[in-house]
Design goal:
The protein is α/β, with parallel strands linked by helices. The chain has helices spanning about 20-30, 55-70, 90-95, 110-130, 135-140, 145-160, 180-185, 190-200, 205-225, 240-250, 270-275, 280-290, and strands at about 10-15, 50-55, 80, 230-235, 255-260, 300. Strands 3-2-4-5-1-6 form a 6-stranded parallel sheet. It is elongated. The two termini are about 10 Å apart.
Length: about 325
């Protein structure tokens, strides 16, 4: 595969039929990345490297892969940190707080605390909207409020991950809708109006909103004061908007690189351009657009035997 043009972001991929963590560790230990300069790191070099992975589990797996790959001799290992974990907001704080100035970001509301808060708001809404069919249903079986609260929590997380203001719901009210759909929109005022006010009064924030704020703060720090050693983000697909921004900043750093999992480099260009949102590669396609890099310039890391070498062709 021909070299990428000068100034191209440092983006790589590992084929889905390879062990991701093992392949990543082997390539880093063997100096197969041109970051920093394509040299094989010696026993003391890796301590200056930072590798960001999606979860704590991925961090442990990569650490073990480095230990196994270093069996030929003792070496200091890189700093391996998780980018975030959907079920553990504190993980995001652990990931980004190193080197950050003091941040005015409220603590996250606990999942169970949020579910009961939303349930109380739903019950209050039901008692104030007795003419609404959904309200009558909730009042007749109050246990449904907890189920509805769980569903609303997932909806809130989706809005927060995409960094979409909940007030966009208000724009739907002007539409000419059947009565039952208009009643549902009235119910959504629970998360558009009541829930944000209750959060503000408690001095808390949503877990996903807090995580995005922390990741964006880290991205700002990396851009303003790039680390002196290599920084590599590996295994993330950038499905969260803030994470995609962080990955974009990393891959454009002189000593930064992003390693994508399972990018399809064999798909023909016409099919690639026509991917829809339901396709599993669509998120990676959007991420490459964020990076402003062509798929043919994404380099493919190989396994120990050199299998799966190459990549998409640039025309």
């Amino acid at each position: 595969m021909r070299d990428a043009p000068a100034g191209t972001p440092h983006v790589y991929t590992i084929a889905p039929d390879l062990d991701f963590t093992r392949t990543l560790a082997d390539n880093l230990l063997n100096g197969n990345l041109p970051v920093p300069g394509g040299a094989r790191p010696d026993e003391l070099d890796l301590v200056n490297w930072t590798i960001l992975v999606p979860t704590r589990r991925a961090a442990r797996a990569l650490m073990m892969a480095f230990v196994d790959g270093s069996a030929r001799g003792t070496r200091l290992l890189p700093r391996i940190r998780p980018l975030g974990d959907v079920d553990d907001d504190e993980l995001a704080a652990e990931t980004v707080l190193g080197g950050l100035p003091e941040l005015d970001i409220p603590l996250a509301i606990a999942p169970l605390q949020r579910q009961f808060l939303l349930a109380r708001l739903i019950l209050a809404w039901a008692h104030n909207n007795s003419g609404n069919q959904l309200a009558r249903t909730v009042k007749s079986a109050t246990g449904q409020a907890l189920d509805l609260a769980d569903s609303l929590g997932n909806l809130i997380d989706g809005f927060d991950n995409d960094e979409v203001d909940l007030n966009v719901i208000e724009a739907l009210f002007g539409a000419d809708l059947p009565v039952h759909k208009a009643e549902v929109l009235g119910f959504l005022d629970v998360i558009r109006v009541e829930y944000p006010a209750a959060l503000a009064n408690s001095g808390l924030s949503g877990a996903m909103a807090r995580r995005s704020a922390l990741i964006r703060a880290q991205a700002d720090v990396i851009s303003a004061s790039p680390p002196k050693g290599p920084i590599i983000a590996a295994g993330s697909t950038g499905s969260i908007k803030a994470t995609a921004d962080l990955l974009n900043r990393i891959c454009h750093l002189p000593l930064g690189a992003v390693i994508l999992p399972g990018l399809d480099v064999d798909m023909d260009d016409d099919s690639w351009m026509q991917l829809d949102q339901q396709h599993p590669q669509y998120g990676l396609k959007e991420l490459l657009q964020t990076f402003e890099i062509k798929r043919c310039n994404v380099r493919q890391l190989t396994g120990e035997r050199g299998d799966r070498a190459g990549g998409a062709r640039c025309w």
